[in-house]
């Protein structure tokens, strides 16, 4: 007795579904605190976040420093950087106003700058 191609295809699909159900769930990488916010790479990621946001929104921000942060191995490669950065903006009468911003950057250390992505940059209300 010959099976139809459709029945054979359904049988293979069921086998694949059963096999997939027995696979362990992918583990989610944990966020790890940044041990040194003054490290060169972390400072460069913070500068990247401020620069890209400023270029897109013309807010006249300048990078001050990274206050704190966490990193996470990204699914598919690269690293996620969740950083709180301080940035300054010129105020009236020659003053500057400094604020903290929550940023999320993805990138591969050592890769070209155009492969990095700024996913979030928002002011932290004090």
Automatic annotation (TrEMBL):
Q: Which InterPro entries match?
A: Cystatin, Cystatin_dom, Cystatin_sf
* Keyword annotations of the record: Protease inhibitor, Signal, Thiol protease inhibitor
Taxonomy, superkingdom: Eukaryota
The signal peptide annotation in the UniProt record is 1-21
Span-the-membrane segments of this chain are none
SUPFAM superfamilies with a match to the protein in the record: Cystatin/monellin
Any idea which GO molecular function terms this record carries?
cysteine-type endopeptidase inhibitor activity
Cystatin domain residues: 36-109
One Pfam family of this chain? SQAPI
- Family per UniProt? Belongs to the cystatin family. Phytocystatin subfamily.
Q: Which PANTHER family match?
A: PHLOEM FILAMENT PROTEIN (PTHR47116)
Instruction: State the name under which the record lists this protein.
Output: Cystatin domain-containing protein
Protein source organism = Panicum hallii var. hallii
């Amino acid at each position: 007795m010959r099976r139809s191609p459709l029945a054979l295809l359904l049988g293979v699909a069921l086998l694949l579904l059963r096999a997939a159900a027995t696979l362990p769930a992918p583990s989610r990488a944990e966020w790890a605190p940044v041990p040194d916010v003054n490290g060169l790479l972390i400072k460069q990621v913070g500068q990247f976040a401020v620069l890209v946001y400023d270029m897109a929104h013309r807010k006249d921000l300048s990078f001050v420093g990274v206050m704190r942060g966490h990193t996470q191995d990204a699914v598919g490669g690269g690293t996620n950087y969740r950083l709180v950065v301080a940035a300054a903006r010129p105020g009236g009468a020659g003053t500057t106003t400094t604020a903290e911003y929550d940023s999320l950057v993805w990138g591969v250390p050592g890769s070209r700058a155009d492969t990095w992505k700024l996913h979030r940059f928002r002011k932290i209300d004090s």
